[in-house]
Fold this sequence. Notes:
Layout: E1 26-36, E2 42-52, E3 56-60, H1 67-73, E4 85-87, E5 90-91, H2 97-103, E6 104-107, H3 118-128, H4 135-144, H5 161-173, E7 179-183, H6 191-208, E8 211-215, H7 219-225, E9 228-233, E10 236-241, H8 252-261
Amino acid sequence: MERFPDAENQEPLLSVTVEPSPAETTKFRVRNLTKSSDAGTPILHGVNMDIPKGKIVGIIGPSGSGKSTVLRALNRLWEPPSGTVFLDGRDIRDLDVLSLRRKVGMLFQLPALFEGTVADNIRFGPQLKGKKLSDEEVHRLLTLADLDASFYDKRGSDLSVGQAQRVALARTLANEPEVLLLDEPTSALDPISTQNVEDVIMKLKKKQGLTVVMVSHSIKQIQRIADVVCLLVDGDVVEVLEPDRLSEAKHPMALRFLTLSS
């Protein structure tokens, strides 16, 4: 993968150690993404990253580094500046925001299911477009999320947090997204539920070629499932490495974070 150019002087900033295959293309391209708080405090200092199609990209770093802020820029949960975030080569500011969010689905830390049954939840997104999912399609989505047919008529109150998270995932997949954004999706789950969600994510990547961008505080989790890891420190991407080469990080704060977190 290419070096990330600096937006002002075009000098290389970082070297990515994962070489793309000839068929690999960039799904998201982020260039000089900046953001400040309402009080004017910088949150992101010109983030640059490439997210390859059909890969799982992990974003890790100390708390307050801007990980979730970067993630939320990718589907305009906050509006990035024009000319900073591109999906398949198009500035996302030029795309209809609802269409963008169907293409770029997001799963949050805690699942929030709507009123009604599991099937009602899964049908919700397509119904907004005037499409009624058949029972067969709902069951297919349940299977994708590693849930069996018995969940069809259950309600949110009948589910564990781990089961509800997988229903939320099935609901997101009903919109047929091209990219899945995950913001600490297993932090509230027990180890078995965490493994179930990780298995589903890896299955979606392998069988459907889904592009996944995942923020996690768990380095071990990122090492289990990611193809490439971006280390974010104080609003900057300071290292981009393969997950089994994180020990080679050179940035002092990134290295300290990795050492203390391992």
